[in-house]
Amino acid sequence: MALGASEQEVLRLVLKEALLLAITGVAAGLLLALGLTRLISSLLYGVRPADPATLIVSPLLLTGAAFLAAYIPARRATRVDPIAALRYQ
After folding, report:
1. How far apart are CA 71 and CA 42, in angstroms?
2. Which of 10, 12, 63, 89 is at a distance of 20 to 30 A from 43, taking alpha carbons?
3. Tens-of-pLDDT digits for all 89 residues of the chain?
4. Considering its fold, how many domains does the chain have in total?
5. In a domain, 2, yes or no
């Protein structure tokens, strides 16, 4: 913002980077979970190892949590005066 970026641009940049990292982690976790279904099948009770509902809902919840974890501080950071932030540094 001190270099001329708008609040929306800063918010969009932070959210884009956070969600890219979260989606990469979720994708890697899904691939590992699907790859290790034989190992974890003995640990599961009442759920199939490749249960579609679990494999859809869990990533959505994790991505939503990552979005909120990035959005709340990013929104607060856009409200800080750039001059005050630079003086504090």
Report:
1. 38
2. 63
3. 556 778 888 889 889 999 999 999 999 999 998 888 878 777 777 777 777 888 899 999 999 999 999 999 888 888 877 777 777 76
4. 1
5. no
For 18, 61, 77, the CA distances from 26, given in Å and listed in that order, are: 12, 10, 26
Structural domain containing residue 32: 7-81
Share of the chain above pLDDT 90, in %: 39
- Tell me if 1 is assigned to some domain: no
Q: Say which amino acid occupies 33.
A: A
Q: Which two tokens stand for residue 72?
A: 């709340």
CA 16 to chain centre: 9
Q: pTM surpassing 0.70?
A: yes
Query: Nearest-CA neighbor of 51 among 68, 33, 64, 63?
Result: 33
Q: Give the length of the chain.
A: 89
